Amino acid sequence: MILTVTPNPALDVSYRVARLAPGTTHRVRSVRERAGGKGFNVSRVLHEMGIATLAVGPVGGVLGESLRADLVVSEVPHALLVVDAPTRMTVAVVDDDDATLFNEAGAALLDSEWDKLLDLVRARLPEASALVCSGSLPLGTPEDTCARVVAAARDAGVPVVVDTSGPALLAAASAGADVLKPNAAELREVVDSADPLAGAERLRALGAGAVVLSLGPEGLVAVTGEGRWRAVPPFPVRGNPTGAGDAAVAALANGLVEQSSWPMRLRAAVAWSAAAVAAPVAGSVDVPLLRKLHDEVRVETL
Amino acid sequence: MILTVTPNPALDVSYRVARLAPGTTHRVRSVRERAGGKGFNVSRVLHEMGIATLAVGPVGGVLGESLRADLVVSEVPHALLVVDAPTRMTVAVVDDDDATLFNEAGAALLDSEWDKLLDLVRARLPEASALVCSGSLPLGTPEDTCARVVAAARDAGVPVVVDTSGPALLAAASAGADVLKPNAAELREVVDSADPLAGAERLRALGAGAVVLSLGPEGLVAVTGEGRWRAVPPFPVRGNPTGAGDAAVAALANGLVEQSSWPMRLRAAVAWSAAAVAAPVAGSVDVPLLRKLHDEVRVETL
Asked: Which residue numbers delimit the Carbohydrate kinase PfkB domain (chains A, B) (predicted)?
């Protein structure tokens, strides 16, 4: 089972409107709600691909209960910790041209609640073949929170993928995460280097096993102890890029479990990611497209 | 006590962002939630002005409970009917330049729930000195719903102010509402006349006692059985126009109770309305400004 940890879940609300025009009033044509947060999206993709997963995260308030209800309906296995802080919301306003996103920051958890969340993770680690810690931290969260999750996994001998940003990304590197998956902007923000390969090596020097950089439609670059590779989709895929990174993380975690070669992991990660762009919502992949893409992804040594 | 009925309440969520840019991702700087819906805003204003009120409306789901909690905190007296349909949300995205609104339509109530809401209104009418029915109807609501509220009030000898639009506005006129308060666009939509005075007379011909047209910064026009007047604020007031109409409705209902002259009612309605523009949130008025404005409003006979 691949255990995912989402430190800052959200109820993702999506509004369809005719056309977004700032300063005006819009009639919302349709409303969709779903359990959101990057780790939950990773679990969704794994579940859709038939891979056992367990989604762990804190929930609070009335939106936390809506989030739980959606996980139940989606049949994504989950273990949620009820906390005082109300679960945040994100709103995506979608018109024919664009998606415009509004992300609440999320409220701080108590230190004792982080301890309980760690206990929950530790209790499930014996069943886990890999752990994913994904997404932002609520405002005011101790910077070592991600690192503590990484340390717990390492203590249990479970490999870890971390997808986060800022100080938490640096802390996860220092704690020895097996794979980090920043995008180019997130990497630049923490390593102060314009060269992404040099930046990735900085994270490895801190303690990370490998760094997989996501470059949007340009694919992925892996900087590892075994070599460096770039993988590129065979053709551009149009659609909703929200959740593409989460599909890549799901594939990378699965690659860790399968102990497949880095070129094979990257091939899968690019195919899953592009197939997520083609699917209408985050946390979902277009499976027929995935199969078509998989063998056509170009992987080259750098 | 002035009884307000809100057929389609909403939890109003307000997001502060740096600058709204369509197609991008926004970090929400602050989040505010409050019980919304036009009738609830009318009750808020009355409560703030020290006038006894009772807010009646249906609530459902988790957002309905958030709405109730906010009414409790705000100390606005209320009597809510719990229904199956979940209470809707509206989202206002506010930056330095503009407010951009996203209004969910609201889910339909069962016919039996409308009957219960009417029973709740009838049970409180003996204590009421006026009734206000304000705001939209959820999608799929029988068009005579507002008219049934008007009829119940008339049966109890209680004067009624209605602020709604579309077929419900016509039905409220035919049911004999004492005062209707459309804005210019809402009037044009139902009477098919470019002349607002002629349009207002059409609503009176259907059965309405008086029509008060709101013209935004241009003030109000009243078309009544006793004459026609226009009232204009003495100077432009900058701020948030959301809720200005609700403050005008609150003043008009209070004028009905006090049986003041039409020029006095209009003077108060313009002053309350402008003082609501100056207040930061809908359902609130800037009381010192209100006092300053009140005597300076210009009222002229048409």
From this structure: 12-281
Q: Specify the pairing of strand B25-27 against strand A99-103.
A: parallel
The angle, 0 to 180 degrees and rounded to 10, between the axes of the packed helices A184-191 and A196-206 is 60
Name the residue of chain B whose CA is nearest to A139's CA. B29
Q: How far apart are CA B15 and CA A135, in angstroms?
A: 21
Instruction: At B144, give phi and psi (nearest 5°).
Output: -90, 10
Q: SS3 for A267? A: helix
Q: Do B28 and A99 touch (CB under 8 A)?
A: no
Question: Which residues pair with residue A57 across a beta bridge?
Answer: A80
From the list A12, A163, A178, A246, the catalytic residue is A246
Which SS3 state, helix, strand or coil, does residue B50 take? coil
Distance between CA A81 and CA A57 in Å, rounded?
6
Average pLDDT, chain B: 94
Identify all chain A residues contacting B65, using CB atoms and an 8 Å cutoff: 62
Query: Distance between CA B201 and CA B226 in Å, rounded?
Result: 13
Cβ contact B26–A103 (<8 Å): yes
Domain B2-301 has CATH 3.40.1190.20: yes
Q: Within chain A, which residues score under 50 in pLDDT?
A: none
Q: Are strands B25-27 and B130-134 parallel, antiparallel or unpaired?
A: unpaired
The Cα–Cα gap between A250 and A271 comes to 11
Q: Which residues in chain A touch residue B27, judged by CB atoms under 8 angstroms apart? A: 103, 105
Q: Do B103 and A25 touch (CB under 8 A)?
A: yes
Report the half-sphere exposure of A278 (CA within 13 A, side-chain side). 19
- Strand partners of residue A231: A220, A299
Tokens of A36: 């959101």
Please give the Cα distance from B269 to B245 (Å, whole number): 9
Can you read off the two tokens belonging to residue B292? 């300053």
Residue A111 has what DSSP assignment? Answer: H
Catalytic residue list of B: 246
Task: Name the percent of chain B in helix, strand, coil, to the closest 5.
Answer: 40, 25, 35
Phi and psi torsions of A214, nearest 5°: -95, 135
Which residues of chain B fall short of a pLDDT of 70? none
Contact A19, B102 (CB under 8 A): no
pLDDT for the residue numbered A79: 98
Q: What is the pLDDT of residue A283?
A: 79
Q: Residue B25 in 3-state DSSP? A: strand
The CA-atom distances, in angstroms, between B146 and each of A102, B81, B248 are: 35, 17, 19
User: In degrees to the nearest 10, what's the CA dihedral of A294, A300, A301, A302?
Assistant: -120
| Residues 6 or more apart in contact with residue A154 via CB below 8 angstroms | A160, A175, A176
Residue A13: strand pairing partners: A33, A91
| Domains of chain B by residue range | 2-301
